[in-house]
Design a protein that fits this description.
Blueprint: H1 2-8, H2 16-23, H3 43-48, H4 63-81, H5 84-93, H6 95-105, H7 110-113, H8 121-138, E1 156-162, H9 167-174, H10 178-184, E2 199-205, H11 209-214, H12 216-222, E3 225-231, H13 238-245, H14 249-256, E4 268-274, E5 285-286, H15 289-299, E6 308-310, H16 317-324, H17 328-334, E7 348-350, E8 356-358, E9 361-365, H18 372-379, H19 383-389, E10 403-406
Amino acid sequence: MMRAILAKYGMPGDLVYLALIESGFSPKAYSVARAAGPWQFIPGTGRRYGLQVNWWVDERRDYEKSTHAAAAYLKDLYGMFDSWPLAAAAYNCGEGKIQRAVSRYKTDDFGTLIRYRYLARETKDYVPKMLAALTIAKNPEKYGFGDVQYEEPLEFDKVVVPGGTDLAAMGSLIGVPVESLKELNPQLRRFCTPPEAEMVEVRVPKGFGPVAAERMEEIQTAARVTFLLHKVGKNETLDSLASQYNTPPSSMKEMNGLRSDSLHRVSKLIIPVTGLSGEESVPGTKVSPDQLRMAHMRVDEGYRRGQRVRVRKGDSLWKIARRSGVSIQALARANRMKTTGTLRAGSVIRIPGGVSRSGDGSRHVVRSGETLWSIARRHGVTVNQLADRNNIHPRESLRSGRVLQIPTES
């Protein structure tokens, strides 16, 4: 699958081994830098290359879509450096770092660049690791891997279902365990397909596409999730509400960002109910799409740079740094505290970074060490878009203090 997608972009099929050293081909791989999926995209780069990353779905974990994004990204990197070793190194540490290395040492030879201290050990080892993986994979017996048990290729059918389809209910209707649906659709982060989408493509095991098509009318009704707003009464518990609405407590906790079973200080809950026909009498009121979006903004795990966030019970600098995609050191510096410092629940902490706004969009004041690539990544645009907006070359070095215009979406 991955080789075929790479070929569509004119990319060498052997680039699949980049995904091997990034994640071991695991869609569940997740790093402290918030990189996810087989190709280990961080959220900003993933979005730049067309991947949805939100509360409901993370397409960085989608085998097919993430490979399309990786192929496009690698094609851009090769176009920038005209060298596969440099393109691979840039995939690891960022094109800005490699651009600065090439500029500083006046060479585009990777073998020469790694003689200097400028590149991190991880990046210096990255290309050799990929070449080693490629070499061994092509002749495993020669290198002592003669007993490798290869996994069968993924085989599946695709069906299109409505947004807000309960995966467990759908699986029950077509005779497929929900675990199999989750394995084939690692991009789906929750118990159902995104409710705001009109229709969603879902993979089912090979041979079950016709079954799903035959039972689609039932899937559209019996597996459809309705979201209800419930005002929590005195002495109510998750278990009592689960019985009242016939909904698993785990789904209610997930929907409302609850860390425990306690409803102490919880006044309202969004409760997902599967298979509601509209004729039943239910105690809750239907949640509007806007209410649902706002609820997910409150419980989503990501923080924006420049945002001020209130510390929750159980939070630590490491947890907040991971959610915001910054280092613990940067977070500690921004809040004038030690990296080993503890956080008090209820206190406010600032996420470093952010953008100053002007009337015609965004501006960014260049700081020492920043590059077009690092600035583009921060603002979710491509290097070429940023360069075009400011009439500069994509490889141009930036002077500290220079003001750049950030392109806005049209």
